[in-house]
Amino acid sequence: MSTDRPSQPGALQIGCIVNQVADGQEGDRDGSLRLTNFLRDGIIIPELQASTTEGVIAEMLDGLILLGRIDPAVRKRTFIALLKRESIGTTGLGAGVALPHAKLDHIQEFVGGIGISQGGVDFQSSDRKPVHVVFLLLSPVDDPYGHLNLMGIMAALVRSEGAIEALKSTRNAGDAIECVEEIERELFPG
C-alpha cells in the first residue's frame, strides 16, 4: 500500500489545494482569504483548558460566542455539525495538528480560530500523536472554494518546517498572529 494515499476523506483535495496555492495556480489574489485576516476576526486561545476533542471544540465555540462571532442560538447545531464531521473521519492531520471544520447554512462568513494545548489532546490522528494546535473553521455552505482555500493554507502551515513548534511556543493572541503572519509570508510571498 502506498504511503502517499490520503488517510481520510478530503485529504487529497486539501493536498491539491495546498500545492495549487503554493504554486500560485490558485488562491486569493487580493489576500483577503489569508489566514492572518481570518484569525484577526476569530478566536485565539493560547492555553486551551479542555483535554478531549469534544471539550476543545466546545471551548473554541464558546470563545466565538463571547466574541460575538456566532449566535449563541446556533451553538448546539454548530457543535453537533462539528462532531458529526469528526465521526466521518478524524480531523487530526498528524504532526500535532487538528482541523475541525464544517460548512453550515447558518454561518454567513468564515469564522473560527486557533487553540493551543500544551498538554496535547487525543484527536485520534493517524500518527497517534497528541494534538497541540487546533484550527477551527466554520464556513458558509455557498463558498466551498473559500473553505478549501483556508483549509489548504492551514494544511500548508502544518507542512512548513518548524511552524507547529513556533505556534506551540506562543503565549498570547498577538504572538500567535505574528507567528502565522511570518509563516504565511514565507509560504506565499508577494
Describe the overall structure.
This protein is an alpha/beta fold and 190 residues long. The chain has a single domain (41-187), classed as Mannitol-specific EII, Chain A, CATH 3.40.930. The chain has 7 helices and 6 strands. It has helices at residues 11-22, 35-40, 53-66, 75-88, 144-159, 163-168, 173-187; strands at 43-45, 92-94, 97-98, 101-104, 111-121, 131-140. Strands 1, 2, 3, 4, 5 and 6 form a 6-stranded mixed beta sheet that branches. Helix 1 (11-22) packs across helix 5 and helix 3 (53-66) runs antiparallel to helix 4. The longest helix is centred in the C-terminal third of the chain and has 16 residues, at 144-159. The N and C termini lie far apart (39 Å). Residues 1-31 have low confidence and may be disordered.
In short:
Helices cover 44% and strands 17% of the residues. It has seven helices and six strands. Helix 1 (11-22) packs across helix 5 (144-159).
